[in-house]
Design goal:
This protein is mainly β. It has no helices and 14 strands. The chain has a four-stranded antiparallel sheet with strand order 4-5-6-7, with no helix packed on it. A four-stranded antiparallel sheet has the order 8-9-10-11, with no helix packed on it.
Length: about 160
C-alpha cells in the first residue's frame, strides 16, 4: 500500500502489488498535503490491528488529520498548531497514542490520538519547528527548527 497526496488537495491510496489506485479522496485538506505518516517502529507489531490501519496527513491549513486506511475516511482532526505558510512535520508515536506536529509559532504540539486533545505545547525554539520525529526504541521526541537547533523531549 502507498498513500500519496495530490496537487488538487486530494489523497490517493495505491495497491503497489498490482499497481492500481484503490481509492481517491477529493479535497482531503483545504491546501495540498505535504506530509503523510504511518505508525512505525518495533512497538507497532504489538499494537492492536486497528492501530496499524491508521495514518496522518498534514497541510498548510492548520490541520493534521487521522485517517482509517480501510475506509480512507478521516476519523479525527487535530487543530491548534500554526501551519499557514511553512511545511512542518507531523508524526505518530511508536506506541500509537500520540501525534506530534511542528508549528510556525516556534513550538511542537503533542496530541492524544484517542481523545483528540492537545496534551503539550513544547517550546524552546526561536523559529519555526520544521520537523518532528519519535525515537522508535527509546521514549524520546526530537524536534528541529529553522533556528538551526535540534531539541529532545520526553513524551507526555
Amino acid at each position: 500500500i502507498a498513500v500519496c497526496g495530490t496537487s488538487d488537495h486530494g489523497l490517493t491510496v495505491y495497491d503497489m502489488g498490482v499497481g492500481i489506485a484503490l481509492r481517491t479522496v477529493q479535497n482531503a485538506h483545504d491546501r495540498p498535503i505535504h506530509r503523510i505518516s504511518f505508525l512505525k517502529g518495533p512497538m507497532a507489531s504489538s499494537l492492536p490491528a486497528e492501530s496499524l490501519n491508521t495514518f496522518i496527513t498534514s497541510s498548510i491549513d492548520n490541520c493534521v488529520k487521522l485517517w482509517d486506511l480501510r475506509t480512507v475516511a478521516c476519523v479525527r482532526r487535530f487543530e491548534g498548531h500554526y501551519n499557514r505558510s511553512q511545511k512542518v512535520g507531523a508524526t505518530i508515536s511508536p506506541c500509537g497514542r500520540f501525534i506530534a506536529t511542528g508549528s510556525e509559532d516556534k513550538a511542537c504540539y503533542v496530541y492524544d490520538i484517542g481523545q483528540g486533545t492537545l496534551l503539550s505545547k513544547l517550546s524552546g525554539h526561536t523559529d519555526v519547528v520544521s520537523d518532528v520525529d519519535w525515537n522508535t526504541s527509546f521514549p524520546l521526541l526530537v524536534t528541529c527548527s529553522h533556528d538551526s537547533t535540534v531539541r529532545f523531549y520526553s513524551p507526555p
